[in-house]
């Protein structure tokens, strides 16, 4: 029972820590979070689109953030590492936040959804899906999906190649949930099989072009097949 309570307490602390860091790094473009327990303490890796906003001048903001999470969540020697997201259009969490911000600025949900899918696919993703759920057009709740390419929902491919992001757009009619799924460009699906040692047959070479006929040969070639051709007699000419 004690071990179960410890596991529940640790999981609850992780969820609260993630919510706190998402709110604190919203201006920097929160793209993901990884929490690991090490012998030296707790290592927190933050992925942001603009890490300079989170680090601050001479690292003042990141030092203050480290002290805050140590006091608030009672972590043992926390160490925060900030990484820059090189491809924000392929980060599901960042695209979910951008889509939510677009909806809050007044874009129509269909226009915003199609625009997000097009931007993700143009960045090289193998597939993506955008799900909007909430009061989109009226008082009743509804769900709209925008999909392109290949998407996997279960199996090992989801854990290896799929990225998922979720964010909320707060509008006057209510809250709209924004979920984004993105398949990585280098994804290798189970049904894609390449047999080693088998060489594909080469394409047939184009037919060689014969040299053009001489005028006399061309005239003979144009004669009908039933016209006899007079050949000069053999032997010396008198």
Brief sketch in words of this structure:
The chain has 238 residues and is an alpha+beta fold. The protein contains seven helices and seven strands; from the N terminus they run H-E-E-H-H-E-H-H-E-E-H-E-E-H. It has helices at 2-24, 51-55, 60-73, 92-104, 109-122, 156-161, 215-221, and strands spanning 30-38, 41-48, 78-84, 127-134, 142-149, 162-170, 175-183.
Write up this protein:
There is one protein chain. The chain is of the alpha+beta class and 238 residues long. The chain folds into two domains: 2-86, 2-Layer Sandwich (GMP Synthetase, Chain A, domain 3); 89-183, Ribosomal protein S3 C-terminal domain, CATH 3.30.1140. 34% of the residues lie in helices and 24% in strands. The chain is built from seven helices and seven strands, in the order αββααβααββαββα. A four-stranded antiparallel β-sheet has the order 5-4-7-6. Helix 4 (92-104) runs antiparallel to helix 5. The mean pLDDT is 83.
Question: If you compute it from the alpha carbons, what radius of gyration comes out, rounded to the nearest whole angstrom?
Answer: 33 Å
Instruction: Give the structural class.
Output: alpha+beta
Helix content: 25-40%
The overall pLDDT, averaged over residues, is 83
Could you list the spans in which at least 5 consecutive residues all have pLDDT below 50?
none
Terminal residue distance: 127 Å
Shape: extended
Beta-strand residue fraction: 15-25%
**CATH class designation of the largest domain:** Alpha Beta
Oligomer: single chain
Q: What is the total domain count?
A: 2
Strand order of the largest sheet: 5-4-7-6
What is the tally of beta strands? 7
- Within CATH, the superfamily of the largest domain carries the name Ribosomal protein S3, C-terminal domain
CATH architecture of the largest domain: 2-Layer Sandwich
SSE string: HEEHHEHHEEHEEH
